[in-house]
Amino acid sequence: MESKTSVGSFQHVLLLLFLLFCFGGVFYTYYKPAMSWLSCPIVSASTHKICTDECLNFLTENYNQSVNSTVLNYTKVNQQQQQLITKAAVTGANTIILIWRWPFGYKFDDKACSPKFGIEGCQFTDNRSQYDEAHGVLFHHRDITTDLETLLKRPRPPHQKWVWMNMESPDNSGRQTVLNDLFNLTTNYRRDSDVWVPYGRILSASEEDKPFKIPPKDKLVCWIVSNWNPYFRRVKYFTELSRYIKIEAYGRHFNRYVSNENYKTILPSCKFYLAFENSIYKDYFTEKLFNSLEVGTVPVVLGPPRENYEEFIPPDSFIHIDDFKTPQELAEHLKFLDTNSPMYEQYFNWRQHFTAHGSLFGIEHACRSCEHIKNNKGFRVFKNLNKWFWG
Q1: Catalytic site includes residue 168
Q2: Which of 359, 384, 371, 389 is nearest to 138 (CA)?
Q3: I want to staple 74 with a disulfide (CB 3.0 to 4.6 A). Which of 3, 45, 64, 343 is the partner?
Q4: Which superkingdom, per the lineage (predicted)?
Q5: Which residues does 27 contact at the CB level (< 8 Å), separation at least 6?
């Protein structure tokens, strides 16, 4: 704006000079001063128009040169500014995400955002001295309860986003009334969260994926459980179902501890796996489901209604307990599939076109939150977290 104003002022000055020059030319023609101070070619009074034209040409040429020079300088400055802006966007200006506390103590590296999710320009830190310069702060729900007093006293910079992260169901998450209106964004397994990160995804198969083959099976039904509660619906259903069909059960309750390595061996060897959730909530189906789908085992699910599952996974990839009136009826169906290979193999038809992938806890939430904050600069407050999540 200043450059345009300067050019306008310069035009007025030149116009004034032009009138003075022309007046001087006329004056010079009629009064013939002894000393020539103007370089216009004067012939006689009758040819004073020559001076006027020469003056006009002279001024016009110098005016154009001045204006062109001014515009050129303005353009160069503007180009330099644009280059600096572009350079800052490319080389610096990372979106800084402060990890208030590492989720369950699990640390992750921001360098994984690009190869894993195609997200560039993120910087993670747990150094709270960088709080004021952080674009976002990620809070894991289970890890802030012991530090809540410090959190509530911390003033938030106007453009900073506070992100509430939680992957547990409401039954397994401590409710805090003081959390209402405290956060700007949510990252959660629920589809209606701001930064949606489910426990897994069904993606189109790529050329790099190997053709799927059903793994060898030597077990009919399996269940690996760590959180045993006799009042859980899943425990009651398991107890009834085990009366009608043999179930290979693992976990502390059964004195059959399963390591990570054993888990990778056991799961594919089962024809059916009981992907029973510990609580029933919309969109809440966990790694139990996606791990089964990924390794080639048919999940038998206990969770939200079938319609909710079918929003995220193929309808012929799983068996829902609600499709059967009783556990005994389900047991009879599983026995039938055990003796009918063509019918059993139909549960893997979807693998011709798709693959299952589990989400990466913590790092995916941080990377996708970084991307969201980078692309959404506007004002945002999440109103009434307790009502939204706990109801």
Answers
A1: yes
A2: 371
A3: 3
A4: Eukaryota
A5: none
Contacts of 65 (CB under 8 A, 6+ apart): none
* Phi/psi at 56 (5° precision): -65, -45
The backbone torsions φ and ψ at residue 89, rounded to the nearest 5 degrees and listed phi first, read: -70, -30
Sort residue 105 into left (φ over 0), alpha (ψ -120 to 50) or beta: left
Find the catalytic residue in 54, 120, 149, 168: 168
Task: Give Cβ neighbours of residue 352 (< 8 Å, ≥ 6 apart).
Answer: 205, 212
Q: What are the residues whose beta carbons fall under 8 Å from the beta carbon of 355, sequence distance 6 or more?
A: 202, 203, 204, 205, 209, 212, 294
pLDDT single digits (tens) 254-312: 999 999 999 999 999 999 999 999 999 999 999 999 999 999 999 999 999 999 999 99
CA 166 from chain centre, in angstroms, equals 16
On whether the CB atoms of residues 150 and 143 are closer than 8 A, the answer is no
β pairing state of 200-204 and 354-358: antiparallel
Q: Could you give all domains of the chain from N- to C-terminal order, each with its CATH number?
A: 2-91 (no CATH), 95-197+363-390 (3.40.50), 205-358 (3.40.50.11660)
Alpha-carbon span 61 to 151, nearest angstrom = 68
Cα 297 to Cα 300: distance, rounded to the nearest angstrom: 9
Distance CA 12, CA 51 (A): 22
pLDDT the model gives residue 344: 98
3-state secondary structure (DSSP) of residue 123:
strand
pLDDT digits (tens, 9 = 90+) for 45-99: 333 333 444 444 433 444 445 444 444 443 443 444 344 333 334 435 699 999 9
Hunting for tokens 């004073």 — which residue is that?
48
Distance CA 343, CA 71 (A): 77
Neighbours of 158 (CB within 10 A): 6
Q: How long, in residues, is the chain?
A: 391
pLDDT over 60 (residue 120)? yes
Nearest one of 196, 214, 219 to 312, comparing CA atoms: 196
What tokens were used for 108?
């992750």
The partner residues of 186 in beta bridges, in order of sequence, read 164
